[in-house]
């Protein structure tokens, strides 16, 4: 039980919020808007999965917002040129993978701090995108939005896919030796190396995975609307980091799990609609989200301190 | 005694939650005396020191400093009263120079005062000279070796005019010459009227330095005795001290040696690595054999181990494992080839502190016990339980975090990791450094058991009696080269040291 105390805390907080909403704002649970809200979170969820792996490996990637924008434009242009959706998907994920590999190479092999590397690539990709696209939206041909299906089928399939991905990745992290390696390297990379693990490879893999998932997330975003906004990635890195941290993934690496991050994302994503249903000014959203993140970090700090004493 | 003792503790008690760390310790330190404090890890030495330095407030008992009772001691107050402590791991600022570090420690009052750089340097230089340390006051602490940093700490203590100096295992990482230097400093401090509380696991140092010795066991002071009478006749034997510490007589300190050794496991032929300064080392480790690797700190023993384990791969010479030529390129490769390595700095790299001990144990055996790279938590727990029992690891269970164990038990966990892989060659780098006597003899027994099971063991140790007692053969390194190989039946402390020191 103690092993899952982080996940439990977030899950309890989320349930409390949901119960509160069920009593005072039962409208919140109307199926159609609820499904729409959940689907809107799919891209962030996919990013959060990658970010969790990166943070567990004691790294950070703040360039995913910019990467997301680049991937979205690549996918958008591919689709706009009349290519099939599958080709747009491949283009987006390959672009993301390449950008992730660049971060990974700089961090793992050149030993540069990931915060600086990803800050640099964040600015670079954002500027490249600005110069190239100059803020123009890309109009997508019919048949891209919701894969050409009805909205309900599109939303349901996206949600189904994201949850499947989450389950698979959570299983990999917890039950596979490869997953354990991320924790070992994130806890103490030198000790991991002396136990026969290749920390450079593991770090590289975490960034490559992050990049691939970013491409995937951008694709999941594109199919939800009739056009691509080149600024659609702005700020997403913070949402993913916040979800992971609130979900109990320690920024010092080596601790936490994907289900916690999932609950963290749901908690943060529920705050905004909850405010609306509670007739509180939506301006409070950011402030309250900040407070939740702060509380999560404080709780983690206290827990670490207590277990160390 | 004319004057009051520098320090007198009477029936000190201290509990942390349900754990009673000190159950009544009495201790006295006179001016001009070296008083050794002995005890197994967990006997309460660290807690006692923290009480003396004001870091912990005792629950009961009285604490007198220079004859007057002090009830609310804080670290600052303790320093003002002339109590200084030199820890095993020096607490210096790595990015500042030696002189700045010393200056900071001595003038902590003047936060907004001006720094007199000239005086700062002169002062540092004088203090370092006084203890005979050849350290440049302008050097950054980061660039100093661990023993040099310890000397800087001692200079600080000297400069602050400390009357009571606590030394917590000061020689754990020192070479023979640095030890001599330290012993000289201890004598200087003693002659100037200071009292020294000296903590060490090396009994021979106690006999060389201490005037009195107090043995702690399970949080109680068991006995205080004079080490020698006024004529210099030693009054107490090593075995007596050990049985006082352990609470039972310790029979044979070292297990019997190997009767037969098998085929060569490791053969090195003129192996060298420019990066780490190892040159043309040729040696053979046989199955069932413990090969001791002796030498001074810096002689290239750890560097050789790192070459064999692929951390810094060799760039010349050849290496054969079980008769087959190999080039080990990374630790991962080494593990696959059947080499195990317990590093020197286990507190940092031997195990992962925030992981449960069962996960630590299975870390290197993933491919072996988890086929298809699928983790089996039940098997993992079983391995944890098995080794906790087999090695007598004191832990609450296989889910206890590595960082929650004491040093000796952590060492057993990192040994268990390699027991689980069953490597053909096991390299142990200072396996009993900082480990108490009881756990030490258990680790010795384990090492011998492993060899008897057919493993080749390469044992690096600065503890000469350990190398002599445990090894079947002893290879001596000096300046990155292998200078001599001795049979343990003929080797003596003198012959090994002579080989390690002989000038080329």
What do you see in this structure?
Chain A is mainly α. Chain A has a single domain (2-302), classed as ABC transporter involved in vitamin B12 uptake, BtuC. Chain A is built from 13 helices and two strands. In chain A, strands 1-2 form a two-stranded antiparallel ribbon. Helices cover 35% and strands 24% of the residues of chain B. Chain B contains 18 helices and 20 strands. The interface between A and B is medium-sized, with 25 and 31 residues.
Short description:
With 309 residues, chain A is an all-alpha fold.
Overall spatial form of chain A:
globular
The major sheet of chain B is characterized as: 6 strands, mixed
CATH topology tier name of the largest domain in chain B: Rossmann fold
Q: Specify the CATH class of chain A.
A: Mainly Alpha
CATH class group of the largest domain in chain B? Alpha Beta
**Strand tally of chain B:** 20
Describe the biggest sheet of chain A? 2 strands, antiparallel
Lateral strand order in the biggest sheet of chain A: 1-2
Order of helices and strands of chain A: HHHHHHEHHHHEHHH
Q: Which CATH architecture of the largest domain in chain B would you pick?
A: 3-Layer(aba) Sandwich
Mean pLDDT of chain B: 84
| Unreliable sequence segments of chain A | none
β content of chain A, as a range? under 5%
Tell me what the CATH architecture of chain A is.
Orthogonal Bundle
SS class of chain B: alpha/beta
CATH topology of chain A: ABC transporter involved in vitamin B12 uptake, BtuC
CA radius of gyration of chain B is: 24 Å
Helix/strand layout:
The complex is a heterodimer of chains A (309) and B (504).
Chain A: H1 5-24, H2 31-40, H3 42-56, H4 64-80, H5 85-109, H6 114-133, E1 138-139, H7 151-175, H8 177-187, H9 189-194, H10 199-222, E2 227-228, H11 236-246, H12 258-277, H13 284-308
Antiparallel strand pairs in A: 1-2
Chain B: E1 7-16, E2 19-29, E3 34-38, H1 45-52, E4 60-65, E5 68-69, H2 75-80, E6 83-86, H3 98-106, H4 117-130, H5 146-159, E7 164-168, H6 176-191, E8 195-199, H7 203-209, E9 212-217, E10 220-226, H8 238-246, E11 264-273, E12 278-286, E13 290-294, H9 301-308, E14 316-321, E15 324-326, H10 331-337, E16 339-342, H11 346-350, H12 357-362, H13 366-369, H14 377-390, H15 407-421, E17 425-429, H16 437-452, E18 456-460, H17 464-470, E19 473-478, E20 481-487, H18 493-501
Parallel strand pairs in B: 3-8, 3-9, 6-7, 7-8, 13-18, 13-19, 16-17, 17-18
Antiparallel strand pairs in B: 1-2, 1-4, 4-5, 9-10, 11-12, 11-14, 14-15, 19-20
